[in-house]
Amino acid sequence: MSQHLKRVAAPRSWPITRKTSKWVAKPSPGPHSEEYGMPLIVVLRDLLHVADKAKEIKQILHEGKVLVDGKVRKDHHFPVGLFDVISIPDISANYRVMIGQDGKFKLVPVSDANSKLLKIVNKTTVTGGRTQLNFHDGTTMLASNDYHTKDSIILKVPEKSIDQHFKYEVGSTAFVTGGKHAGVVGKIKEIRIIKSTTPNRITISTPAGDFDTVERYVVVVGKDTPAIDLGVKA
């Protein structure tokens, strides 16, 4: 399988130039799909400008100088995506991967590199009757049955312990990840369950007014205010 893809064919969420060269690195299989994740080399070279050449980025990664969610990552194709925290200890820099209002990934400088927000996308029962939570980034963990699909948690990394839990309900603070309102933070005003193949609709209230969006774009990020720095005004 090719380790590259054409720049013009890269997902529109990637904030990269399209015509400077023909090819760009392709993310390897991992926590995020190609549509919702960027390879680490693209983040370090094209967004953070840590180095200009792929060879230099590979050397930095080989030396273990870059962490993703508190864990050293050496694969330059490793996919990073929404809410991941990238840390470079040598320069005391931490960044959270977010979606901007243009629908493209952006990096938000943060001071807390040990908090990762995760949306619960599914729950399963595994051997022994234990509950397994499945998160938006493809990771899983065992937990109590107190958590529900579409809820969100704050995970302390790298120890992977749940610090906070936010319910998917009216009144919670939410972040919109897609559509024409991508990158907007507001309060969940109404949840409309539609009993058909049509997606459920969510009304989000903001100081600028209310708007509707589809359920899959909504991520709860706190109760009264965002629990993490999103790089946007609530």
Automatic annotation (TrEMBL):
Record-level Gene Ontology MF annotations: rRNA binding; structural constituent of ribosome
Keyword field contains Methyltransferase: no
Domain named Small ribosomal subunit protein eS4 central region: residues: 93-162
Cellular component GO terms, alphabetical: cytosolic small ribosomal subunit
Keyword annotations of the record: Ribonucleoprotein, Ribosomal protein, RNA-binding, rRNA-binding
Phylogenetic classification of the source organism: Archaea, Methanobacteriati, Methanobacteriota, Stenosarchaea group, Methanomicrobia
Keyword Ribonucleoprotein appears in the UniProt entry: yes
Domain Small ribosomal subunit protein eS4 N-terminal: 2-34
One Pfam family of this chain: Ribosomal_S4e
GO biological process, any: translation
Name of the protein described by the UniProt record: Small ribosomal subunit protein eS4
Gene: rps4e
SUPFAM superfamilies per UniProt: Alpha-L RNA-binding motif (SSF55174)
Family in the record: Belongs to the eukaryotic ribosomal protein eS4 family.
